[in-house]
Amino acid sequence: MLTMTNTPNYTGVKISGDYFDLDDLNQAIYKVIGKEEQYHGYEGSRRRLLGISYELRHAAQGDRNVEFVFNGLHDHTMKQHGFIAPDKNIYYSVEVLWPELIYAAIAMKDFVSLYQKQASKSVWDIHLPVIYRFQALVLDCLQGHIPDAEYKTIIKGFDQLATVDDYAIQYVDLMNLKYIGMTKQQREKNLSTIALKLAVQDKDYQAFRQQVMTAATGKKRIHEINISAEYPEEIEW
């Protein structure tokens, strides 16, 4: 079963599951976000989601974290059925920065809508429930670590019709780096603020977006504009 838990230093979320859990999520993301340039204005967000897919794929291949999880098999069950088997399953996991994961959950709203309009109108589509669960797990994990009143405000922002069409995805880098640079205590205090800033495109975001557009040269699209964003080689999760 796919699970999400806060990392010890509040830096991000550990996404855990067996091979099939992670592979199902990875395949669903690939399917829903479409092919390159399929959805005009969403290529920047699509690339960020591909970044998470990359981590999920490598986690499922055992390239990230490997752990053993109790599978519910007790001694009396083995005796009852006359066999011996391991009482633990292998689970794989990978950490994702909180701002990155929150933005992914938000961006998926648009991709789900685009997917339903252009690719799959079926209520029996097998990929959408996987995406819905992914989004719900992000919000559920977030809820467990911020005050109820602030969570309700974030949910209202999450439910708004604001689109990530032509979104300045460099803002996610800004939030990631700002969050990494905080202490554990500062992250605990500011997690809800970061989440709200990503859920609601406020004046700070609009001003940042304008700065990015001003810095553009030639006819580059907004997601093609590079900013100086150097991540540390090691992150204390």
Q: Any overview of this molecule?
A:
With 237 residues, the chain is α+β, with helices and mostly antiparallel strands. Helix content is 54%, strand content 11%. The protein is built from 9 helices and 4 strands, in the order ββααβαβαααααα. It has helices at residues 19-33, 43-60, 75-81, 98-118, 128-143, 148-159, 170-180, 184-199, 203-215; strands at 3-6, 12-17, 65-70, 88-97. A 4-stranded antiparallel sheet has the order 1-2-4-3. The two termini are 22 Å apart.
Number of helices: 9
Rg: 19 Å
Global outline = globular
Rounded to the nearest angstrom, the distance between the terminal CA atoms is: 22 Å
The count of strands amounts to 4
Extract low-pLDDT stretches.
Answer: none
Summarize the helix and strand pattern as letters. Answer: EEHHEHEHHHHHH
Strand order of the largest sheet: 1-2-4-3
Largest sheet: 4 strands, antiparallel
| Overall structural domain count | 1
- Which whole number gives the mean pLDDT? 92
The computed structural class is alpha+beta
Q: Which range does the strand content fall in?
A: 5-15%
